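Just curious. Invent one:
>
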Amino acid sequence: MRPITTNFVVCLLGVLFSMGSSFVLAQEKPGPAEVKFQMLRASPEPPEVKAQQQEAERVFKKINQGKLSRQQKRSMLLNHRNPRIRAKAQQAVKDQPSPKTSKLSGASVVSEAQEGFSVTLTPSKRFSRSPYAYLNFYGAKVIRSDSGLYTYVLEDQGTRAIGINISRPYAKIYVEVPQTGWYLIDFYGYGKNKARLRILGNGYPTLETWEFGASPTFYNHYATAEYLEEGGHTFYFQMDTILSAAIVISNSFTFFEVSVESF
């Protein structure tokens, strides 16, 4: 039997010591829950962020109270205080095709493409395959509430320190309509602001503008009736900055949904 040498004993002790150290380190390493807790304690959310989250939660709890049916939107446009919006809605009514009479039932019927087109997009559902449509945000402020709700806020950032430098975040909407005709486009959200709707084209021409400073509620519909050709259309919805003699008044709009429907 070979005698145990000093070198062997030293090596053995070294191995045991390293194993013991690894064991101690493993025991001291916190689990996933502890790590998450430590991270939360180490980096608490600033009070202003917490306030924004609570405000977003409060606003979205009442989202359904201001929703309108298609008939209610049509009525709203036909009686709109903006004469341009009112005139377009009235023209849309005049241009409505006369319903055809069914030979079987004798009842008045309209085609599915004429009466049944409708698509609604929201921050949580930004894509529709049929009808084909999608919604994207550019430069929007994103707030995550305590319940995991993501809120998208379009808010311009205006300064007048050196000239006028204004960042205008916007929502981009693409939709394909089945046939040429009048369509009801509605942006629903929380805000009492000026806003502008542009369409893809040379110079991004303006289709419509709104101003809700005198609205009795913050839950408002930025709606219009537009005559669209069959096929795809791209729209840009943005806050329209209010300029005064010396300052820029900031606009903020919490985006709930956008809908495009047959008028």
In short: The CA atoms of residues 176 and 231 lie 5 Å apart. Residues 6-28 form the longest helix (23 residues). Residues 15-43, 100-113, 159-164 have pLDDT under 50 and may be disordered.
